[in-house]
Amino acid sequence: MKRNKIIVAITGASGSIYAKQLISRLLQLPEKPEIAVIFSDNGKKVWDFELENEKLDETKIKIFPANDFFSAVASGSANYNAMIIIPCSMGTIGRIASGTSDNLIIRAADVMLKEKRQLIIVPRESPYNLIHIRNMETLILAGAEIIPASPSFYSHPKTFNDIITTVTDKVLSALKYNDGLFEWGK
């Protein structure tokens, strides 16, 4: 299945910079995927605080309110191929694991799981407690991928942006967009 329709959800965990960079990198792909963005209420507040009210270019993406259950991302028939929740709070992970679907992010994640489509969750919080681990286990067993926002340093990052890239590279690799990503031994 071609990865041409992607949902990026942003929750209230710290780490909006990861979402910003991921969206920017997706928009630079030659395949030009259609990108839908959903902010949780707290996700928007954290974005505004951490990125000093930086705006996304709505001519290149679609932004859906977290309470819009009539949006395309709420249905499997809209044929979104993948969803990345970056950063993902432990509260969001818990609600997805319990199947509450109380906002559009949780509903869209539920759709990805039920339709057997790719759901990538990028938790940023730490440390984990046993409830977090069990919720992540539930999601992995349901078909989700967990890619913690844990930067790596074997690529010898030189800048803050390079450090962020070590995480977004993992997400892009999971999406099978491998061109230009760091490879060990090359």
Overview of the structural elements:
- This protein has 186 residues and is α/β, with parallel strands linked by helices.
- It has a single domain, classed as Flavin prenyltransferase-like (Rossmann fold, 3-Layer(aba) Sandwich).
- The protein is built from six helices and six strands; from the N terminus they run βαβαββααβαβα.
- A six-stranded parallel beta sheet has the order 3-2-1-4-5-6, sandwiched between helices.
- Strand 2, helix 2 (41-50) and strand 3 form a beta-alpha-beta unit.
- Helix 1 (16-27) packs across helix 6 (160-174) and helix 3 (90-98) crosses helix 5.
- It is globular.
- The mean pLDDT is 93.
Corresponding CATH superfamily: Flavin prenyltransferase-like
CATH architecture: 3-Layer(aba) Sandwich
* Helix/strand/pairing category: alpha/beta
H/E element sequence? EHEHEEHHEHEH
**How many strands, which pairing sense, and closed or not: the largest β-sheet?**
6 strands, parallel
Q: Globular, elongated, flat, extended or rod-shaped: what is the shape?
A: globular
Radius of gyration: 15 Å
Terminal residue distance? 29 Å
SS summary, helix count: 6
Assigned CATH class:
Alpha Beta
Strand content: 15-25%
Oligomer: single chain
Number of strands: 6
Mean pLDDT: 93
At the third CATH level, what is the topology name?
Rossmann fold
Regions with little confidence, pLDDT below 50 for 5+ residues? none
Q: Classify the helix fraction into a percent range.
A: 25-40%
Strand arrangement within the widest β-sheet reads 3-2-1-4-5-6
Return the domain count: 1
